Amino acid sequence: MSDDVENLELDETADAEAAGAAVGAAEVITLGCRLNTYESEVMRGHAQAAGLNDAVIVNTCAVTGEAVRQAMQTIRRIRRERPAAKIIVTGCAAQIEPERFAELDAVDHVVGNAEKMQAQTFQSLALGDCERVQVNDIMSVTETASHMIGGFGTRARAYVQVQNGCDHRCTFCIIPYGRGQSRSVGAGEVVSEIRNLVENGYREIVLTGVDMTSYGKDLPGQPTLGNLVRRVLKLVPELPRLRLSSIDQVEADADLLAALAEEERLMPHLHLSLQAGDDMVLKRMKRRHLRTDAIKFCEDARKLRPDVVFGADLIAGFPTETEEMFQNSLDLVEECGLTYLHVFPFSPREGTPAAKMPQVARKAVKDRAQRLRAAGERVLRQFLEGQQGKVADVLLERATFGRTEHFAETVLATPGDVGGVVRARIVGLRDGKLQAEVIN
Ligand code: SF4
Fold first, then answer.
1. Which of 6, 89, 123, 162 to pair with 363, CA 20 to 30 A apart?
2. How far, in Å, is the centroid of ligand 1 from the Cα of 173?
3. 4 in contact with ligand 1, CB cutoff 6 A
4. How confident is the model at residue 12, as a pLDDT?
5. Using one digit for the tens of pLDDT, what is the confidence trace for 118-157?
């Protein structure tokens, strides 16, 4: 699954703050994943350069039916709040169902996922001489370019897209139809983009993509994600922290594991696209691993980097999942030693094979999701309690709030500079957040 879709609405605040800086400038509302967050910054730059004003760009997500409903609600709210603004809808929901958005009176333009990354799209929008719907066949897109972004509004960490699209066809997933085939950004471009962001003061970079572990398969010499990580850390020695957004552990290359073992600046936090813990369910999902592969990957990675922590996407209530099969997913939490769970109650996504499979009763889906979340809260608490007395480097997202190398939320006793990294001793735990005192 594309990077974690955790805070569908979170980005609005950051976007609004950043947009507020330039009165009248186009506002960008980001729904969905970190890849969308990255692309929203690219669109903000294109819109500003084109002089596109009094416009609202809604960068949508299509990962679930709920995500599309939220896009619709957001558009209607914006139209109520800004009756005169030009509303431009883009992102995966617009790419997959352009006509559905074009039918809305509230919508002025519908733009595809490839078109949204092109400067000329915003020039023609600013001039008002373009088609109402500009959405081409995303499967025909073979390249993905990097974009020199200066910053990410008020964010402490910057996202860099290294890969887009996906060649897999997991039975529950609509993303390949919104993002197209897998394609990678050249390593040289990635390094230049990261160097530029570090020169602009960013202390942490998050590499992002749709299926990042397929990085490089379409590039000359087929460099791997591990090669790319090594190259970035070698050629940008000023970068203190490099983080990976989400990986498919069964595709993780040997260089990536070696980098995890040897590169202190590669954060000891891997988010795994596990999805389930039962082999029959994994087979029906058309995933490429078995539960024993996931357990072995975590064991091997922990031997190489003993303090590594794992996050994971897990779906509860996939069609045909029995109580016994679900128990295998629940047991996987301990067997892999997971710390951060992103739990998705299965919801049939129209247009996917899984939507046509025999569905699990909604009550059971919700109940299983709740039990997985409870397991997630328990393992996270165990991890946080184990941090007491330890020393961590905290990247500040607000004056007294940030995250450690292990991505643990941390509250500092004394304020610091947003975007800075401070060394701190963990002295307590309150409301699921570490309490820490600065020691440098
Ligand atoms: S098809 Fe599978 S691998 Fe590709 S984005 Fe969807 S869940 Fe991820």
1. 6
2. 6
3. no
4. 44
5. 999 999 999 998 999 999 999 998 877 666 676 676 678 9
Buried b (16+ CB within 10 A) or exposed e, 301-339: bbeebeebbbbbbbbbbbbebeeebbebbbebbebbbbb
pLDDT of residue 14: 47
The pLDDT of residue 106 is 96
> Residue 134: which residues within 8 A CB-CB, separation 6 or more?
109, 110, 111, 112, 115, 121
d(CA 397, CA 419): 6
Query: Distance (Å, rounded) from C-alpha 9 to C-alpha 6?
Result: 9
CB 405 within 8 A of CB 241: yes
**Residues 72-111: tens digit of each pLDDT:** 999 999 999 999 999 999 999 999 999 999 999 999 999 9
| Mean pLDDT over the full length of the chain | 93
Residue 344 buriedness (CB in 10 A; 0-12 / 13-18 / 19+): buried
Cα radius of gyration rounded to whole Å, the chain: 21
pTM comes to: 0.91
276 Cβ closer than 6 Å to some ligand 1 atom: no
Handedness of CA 383, 386, 391, 397 (dihedral sign): positive
Structure tokens at 215: 């990085």
For ligand 1, whether the C-beta of 1 sits within 6 Å is yes
Q: Is 176 in the pocket of ligand 1 (CB under 6 A)?
A: yes
Alpha carbons 32 and 90: distance in angstroms, whole number: 12
Residue 208 Cβ < 6 Å to ligand 1 = no
Q: Which residues contact 340 (CB under 8 A, 6 or more apart)?
A: 271, 309, 310, 311, 312, 376, 380, 407
Beta-strand relationship, 27-30 and 55-60: parallel
